[in-house]
Amino acid sequence: MDELTTPPLLSGLAEQSPEAMRSVDTSDQPVLVLSGSGVAGPQNRRMFLTRVSALSLVIPGVGAALAACSRENEPKQTGAAGGAAQPAAPRGPHNSDSQLDSSVLKGHAHGGTSATAPATQGAQNVAFQRYDPTLPPLPPGGSQTLDWRAREVPVRISDDTVIAAWTFEGDVPGPIVHTRVGDTVRFTLTNQGAIPHSMDFHAAQVDPKQAFRSVVPGQSVSFTFQPKYAGAFMYHCGTAPVLMHIGSGMYGAIIVSPREPLPPAKEFVLVQSEFYLAEPSGRVRASDYQKMLTTMPDIVVFNGRPHQYMAAPIRVKAGDRVRFWVVSAGPSHPCNFHVVGEQFDTVYLGAPPQSPLRGVQTFSVPPGGGMVFELVCDVPGEFPFVNHGFGHGQKGAIGILVVEP
User: Fold this and answer.
1) Rounded to the nearest 5°, which phi and psi values hold at 220?
2) Which pLDDT belongs to residue 281?
3) Domain spans of the chain?
4) CB atoms < 10 A from the CB of 218, how many?
């Protein structure tokens, strides 16, 4: 097989000698040719940008990244009269591919973990807080404005574990958003962290290059959307590598109610996710990117904390209809949702109230997806709700629904 069939990683290209890149077969695909000083330390800016253009043919997005690196590291150019050269016209927002950025992750200051300085400071003073799973009420007036901050902070997920978290609004998951089909959501994200972050709402239909673009520390991005479909939707940071940002805590649920009201119910939101943690350092455990690539999590949770709804169960009354809005944030595994001792009389595959399934015992919610589960609690008792993929259920994705007489 021709060795250029699979696009090369940036890190690999940077290490290849000019001689190794001079001869390539151009019969089937674009060709990258690097000569002279190669990628690192270009001697001639025009020649470098020409090579960058060729590189973009092979690996879309990398050209802009390399050009930016060149502008940061080169001495400032001067015009013919000794004055500063005019800056190039801006190309607009750019988010490079997560796989490509993954190849240079080791060069980041956090070294492949979430242990940025803000995410580790003050870890010993962080208190545990149960995440309230109750669906908040719809805001009045058919619109809402969300002004959120991307922050890197320590979060205690159990008595003995504090994680170096990347967050929306300082918690994992971020806040539950409740809106309705056709209502307006005006959103602004301000980056108060140490590295770039962004926001991707799965309930929005917008141009992702504009709305979901990354913003550097100290800057903001704003956009507006009106959800078209009802359901349980995920939101998450879309900055590359996306695996790292979701795995470090930047996710949550946006619940979109239909225009026509569903039957009255006690409504709860469960966001399942996974933690892949490095060994403790200074009373905090950072998320580990290499562990994320193995897809073998240390802990699996509902709403950011293992077993929290065992110690402090969800409580309802006999006869109540209970509606679970379940989102699987992953980053890699589904949630096989099941309530022990009960069956779901209704499961919505798509936008409620359409496409209901009746009499369901367990159903899988894919990573990046969401579904709606309903049951009538007509028998008093204690009913575990769990990821029935028990390798993950026993790692923390389990709670108790208490039905009181």
Assistant:
1) -135, 160
2) 92
3) 10-91, 117-263
4) 9
Distant-in-sequence, close-in-space partners of 327: CB < 8 Å, separation ≥ 6: 232, 233, 234, 253, 269, 270, 271, 272, 365, 369, 370
Q: Is 260 left (phi over 0), alpha (psi -120 to 50) or beta?
A: beta
H/E element, 225: strand 220-225
Joined together, the tokens standing for residue 256 give 């979109």
Rounded to 5 degrees, φ, ψ at 117 are -55, -45
Task: Please say if the pLDDT value at position 104 is more than 80.
Answer: no
Cβ proximity of 195 and 116 under 8 Å: yes
Taking the model in full, what pTM does it have?
Answer: 0.76
Q: Please state, for a pLDDT cut of 90, what percent of the chain lies above it.
A: 72
Annotate 28-54 with three-state secondary structure.
CCCCCCCCCCCCCCCCCHHHHHHHHHH
Beta bridge partners of 267: 323
251: Cβ contacts below 8 Å, ≥ 6 apart: 172, 173, 174, 234, 235, 236, 237, 271, 273, 329
Residue 185, classed as helix, strand or coil, is strand
Determine phi and psi for 109, rounding to 5 degrees.
-65, -30
CB 190 within 8 Å of CB 172: no
Q: How far is the C-alpha of 6 from the C-alpha of 238, rounded, in Å?
A: 24
pLDDT given at position 3:
39
Residues in CB range of 90: below 8 A, 6 or more apart: none
CATH architecture group of domain 117-263: Sandwich (2.60)
